[in-house]
Amino acid sequence: QVQLQESGPGLVKPSQTLSLTCTVSGGSITTNYYYWNWIRQPPGKGLEWMGAIHYSSSTYYSPSLKSRTSISRDTSKNQFTLQLNSVTPEDTAVYYCATRYGSNWGYWGQGTQVTVSS
Fold first, then answer.
1. Hey, how many other C-beta atoms are within 10 angstroms of the C-beta on 12?
2. Which secondary structure element, helix H or strand E, spans residue 73, and what is its range?
């Protein structure tokens, strides 16, 4: 069974870069046709898709976050990483990594709380 685990700092200062890593076990991030996604949920709000990296290494981003977001991967470690630049308190959220095959969402990490505060 595929397992995903998010890791990274729980507190980031405004204007800094938020960096999170998703470590995948039980499956490969190069498995055909899978998308590896980052999603977040701000307090009191719904889920927001941020972007994804395809098994082919192509990347896709939410238009609203594209200018500040970068997703990359390390196939040797079976990890993919989110970087969100110039964060503000509005970026405070629980951040999740998750798999998607076509339109079907699959496995999710447990989520990690990130707070943006000075």
1. 20
2. strand 69-74
- What gap in Å lies between CA 73 and CA 29, rounded to an integer? 8
Reported as type and span, the H/E element at residue 23 is strand 18-25
Q: Rounded CA gap, 32 and 88, in Å?
A: 36
Residue range 49-106, pLDDT digits in tens: 999 999 999 999 999 999 999 999 999 999 999 999 999 999 999 999 999 998 898 8
Cα 96 from Cα 82, distance rounded (Å) = 10
B/e letters for 66-82, b = 16+ CB within 10 Å, e = fewer, are: eebbbbebeeeebbbbb
Q: CA 36 to CA 22: how far, in whole Å? A: 9
